[in-house]
UniProtKB/TrEMBL annotation:
Lineage: superkingdom: Bacteria
One Gene Ontology term of the molecular function aspect: DNA-binding transcription factor activity
PANTHER family: MARR FAMILY REGULATORY PROTEIN (PTHR33164:SF99), TRANSCRIPTIONAL REGULATOR, MARR FAMILY (PTHR33164)
SMART domains: HTH_MARR
Taxonomic source organism: Micromonospora radicis
Entry protein name: MarR family transcriptional regulator
Occurrences of domain HTH marR-type (ranges): 1-145
Length: 158
């Protein structure tokens, strides 16, 4: 069976793919130029800064980033070498480990955030009116929830 999209849906899909790739590339380039951080570095720092005790179990961090365990290990190891995060045994479970935000990581985040938020505003948000922002929020919140459920179901079946 061959699946196809009607013209409107195919046009929307292609516009989404091309624009989202260009947007991500522009945001990452701006972030690297301003701070030396990758988008993944920044996201890790944000999640840890918002977590209780500025620490998260590696599994939870991987889930929040939508990273495989091996990709997260690589990411955290890279950030550890630069002093942005530390990896420590989980106090509740000696078998697990947590990523912990360091003082240097928090400083890097605080320095990068104004530049990154300016880039987000100028590259995306300034072109949208309030109704479009509300629509994007609805679409991606719903899509994210559905996809999270799909990921959870896939993991529980393996």
């Amino acid at each position: 069976m061959t699946e196809s999209l009607d013209h409107a849906r195919l046009t929307a899909w292609r516009a989404y793919i091309e624009a989202s790739q260009r947007l991500f590339t522009r945001l990452e380039d701006d972030l690297r130029a301003a701070s030396g951080l990758s988008f993944a570095d920044y996201h890790v720092l944000v999640l840890l800064s918002e977590a209780p005790g500025q620490r998260l179990r590696m599994g939870e961090l991987a889930d929040r980033l939508v990273f495989s365990p091996s990709r997260l290990t690589y990411q955290v190891s890279s950030m550890q070498r630069r002093g942005l995060v530390a990896r420590q045994p989980c106090p509740q479970d000696g078998r697990g480990s947590e990523a912990v935000l360091t003082a240097a990581g928090l400083m890097a985040l605080r320095e990068a955030a104004p530049h990154h938020l300016h880039s987000v505003r100028t590259q995306l948000m300034d072109d949208l009116d309030d109704a479009e922002i509300a629509c994007l929020t609805r679409i991606f919140t719903r899509l994210g929830r559905r996809l999270q459920g799909t990921v959870d179901a896939t993991l529980s079946n393996s």
